[in-house]
Amino acid sequence: MAQGKFVSYLRVSSAKQGRSGLGLEAQRKAVADYLNGGAWELSGEFVEVESGKLDGRPQLEAALAMCELTGATLVVAKLDRLSRMTCPPTVPRS
Questions:
Q1: Shortest CA distance to 42 belongs to which of 64, 68, 73?
Q2: What is the DSSP track for 44-59?
Q3: How far is the C-alpha of 47 from the C-alpha of 24, rounded, in Å?
Q4: 37 backbone φψ class: left, alpha, beta (φ>0; ψ -120 to 50)
Q5: Which CATH architecture has domain 3-81?
Q6: What is the distance between the alpha carbons of residues 42 and 47, in angstroms, rounded to a whole number?
Q7: What was the pLDDT predicted at 60?
Q8: What integer pLDDT is reported at residue 13 of this predicted model?
Q9: Longest pairwise C-alpha distance within the chain
Q10: Where are the domains of the chain?
Q11: Contact 49, 15 (CB under 8 A)
């Protein structure tokens, strides 16, 4: 069971996904399912319509700042909402 303060970050890659609400609603449900049943507080929700390829995402930066300010934990539906790279890069051998 989840306990404590949480900040959710939801991201869709295209304006079409954002307008339809399908991607966002599925992510909201995944976050709610994770938090369900615990003693938790959702301190904020940040939504971004932006490609995962791009580095500059102001809503992610704002979500992380709120986490730092309030001591909350960032929660996302899936790791690929943070970045397209979901595993450490391969380090070439010398």
A1: 73
A2: EEEEEE--TT-S--HH
A3: 8
A4: left
A5: 3-Layer(aba) Sandwich (3.40)
A6: 14
A7: 92
A8: 82
A9: 50
A10: 3-81
A11: yes
